[in-house]
């Protein structure tokens, strides 16, 4: 188990983590679930209490006031754990380890607040267009960036980032990928061929309200929940697959309206460096399971050295965009869990943004080349 302890008065509650351990059997897994019922445990991995199982590494944050009681309970039940972070605020501050070239300017090597993200200026307007697909619960605009030529009939890939507000490396990748695609067009043979023959629809920040709030306090989006005083919905558990909610209507409507051209759906998250495919809401395998496994293995091998991602066949979730897109008829669907594997959880330093984006872009190109060659 790995345990992360924040200091007293931690302001960045949205970025706080608690204990992490590896229950040896179902009895120990149930102990963790029971602790979560009586204590404020912020699970980082897995993302929900009911997913905790035997032989699974569990990461969670616990406040300083509760930390002694939690450690005592774990010790009494002979559960092995490790404290990863003693002072969470210190690690939050360490994230920002890249100096700005020009203060206030948008930088692709840094984490950017929403106001900077929204004002991204693209030097190739003939290749990049911004489409407003809706508004959020707090009336912020929801944009999709279209990368490529104006022909709507061409094959396309839909990519979304920032569906979970605290996963900052995710929107950082989407922003970087758009920048690199336009920057290298005409210079890089692969990128030039891809953009000459297909389009990319990129949703750089899915949970806009949550992302704005995550810079101060919260993790999810900011929609109000019926019959509850709590604010915030996990958007990646609100697609109509073993779940039913209209929170994601703007995105699903856009994808449905472009279904003839969209041949692949890729969603980016953190952390754990894994590559996932359907299904999450059931243990049943998709009809093209063997094809997906073969393609993912080829993709992973193409990224070595080093081995950037691990193949993960089943990650239990309900209502995910991954499963929804597959059932909708987009048979090439992938979910990337970006860096890193757990030492710092969601708190990936800015100095690792570039390397993370580079390795992930290799995988995106691999998928795009496959779509271009093998889909009709």
Automatic annotation (TrEMBL):
Keyword Protease on entry: yes
Cofactor(s) annotated in UniProt: Zn(2+)
A single BP term in Gene Ontology: proteolysis
Gene3D superfamilies from the UniProt entry: Metallocarboxypeptidase-like, Zn peptidases
UniProt keyword list: Carboxypeptidase, Disulfide bond, Hydrolase, Metal-binding, Metalloprotease, Protease, Signal, Zinc
GO molecular function ontology, one term from the record: metallocarboxypeptidase activity
Residue ranges constituting the Peptidase M14 domain according to the UniProt record: 104-371
SUPFAM superfamilies named in the record: Protease propeptides/inhibitors (SSF54897), Zn-dependent exopeptidases (SSF53187)
SMART domains reported in the protein's UniProt record: Zn_pept (SM00631)
Record Pfam families: Peptidase_M14, Propep_M14
Active site per database record: 337 (proton donor/acceptor)
Family indicated by similarity: Belongs to the peptidase M14 family.
Protein name per the record: Carboxypeptidase A3
């Amino acid at each position: 188990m790995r345990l992360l302890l924040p200091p007293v008065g931690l302001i960045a509650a949205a970025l706080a983590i608690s204990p992490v351990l590896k229950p040896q059997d179902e009895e120990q897994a149930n102990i963790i679930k029971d602790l979560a019922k009586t204590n404020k445990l912020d699970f980082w991995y897995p993302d929900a209490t009911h997913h905790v199982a035997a032989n699974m590494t569990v990461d969670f944050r616990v406040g300083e006031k509760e930390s002694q009681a939690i450690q005592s309970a774990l010790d009494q039940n002979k559960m092995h754990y490790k404290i990863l972070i003693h002072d969470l605020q210190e690690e939050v501050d360490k994230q920002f380890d890249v100096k700005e070239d020009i203060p206030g300017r948008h930088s692709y090597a840094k984490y950017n607040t929403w106001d900077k993200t929204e004002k991204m200026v693209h030097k190739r307007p003939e290749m990049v267009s911004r489409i407003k697909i809706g508004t959020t619960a707090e009336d912020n605009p929801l944009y999709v960036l279209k990368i490529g030529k104006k022909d709507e009939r061409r094959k396309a890939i839909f990519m979304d980032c920032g569906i979970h507000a605290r996963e900052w490396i995710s929107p950082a990748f989407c922003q970087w990928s758009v920048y690199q695609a336009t920057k290298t067009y005409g210079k890089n043979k692969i990128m030039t061929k891809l953009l000459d023959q297909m389009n990319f629809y990129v949703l750089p920040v899915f949970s806009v309200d949550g992302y704005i709030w995550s810079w101060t306090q919260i993790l999810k989006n900011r929609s109000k929940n019926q019959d509850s005083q709590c604010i915030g919905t996990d958007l990646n558990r609100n697609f109509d697959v073993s779940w039913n909610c209209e929170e994601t209507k703007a995105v699903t409507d856009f994808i449905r309206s472009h279904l003839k051209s969209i041949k692949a759906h890729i969603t980016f998250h953190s952390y754990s460096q894994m590559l996932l495919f359907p299904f999450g809401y059931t243990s049943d395998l998709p009809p093209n399971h063997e094809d997906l496994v073969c393609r993912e293995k080829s993709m992973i091998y193409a990224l070595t050295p080093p081995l950037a991602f691990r193949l993960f066949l089943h990650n239990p979730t309900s209502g995910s965009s991954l499963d929804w897109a597959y059932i909708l008829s987009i048979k090439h669907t992938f979910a990337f869990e970006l860096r890193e594997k757990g030492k710092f959880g969601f708190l990936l330093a800015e100095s690792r943004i570039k390397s993370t984006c580079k390795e992930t872009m290799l995988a995106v190109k691999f998928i795009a080349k496959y779509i271009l060659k093998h889909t009709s």
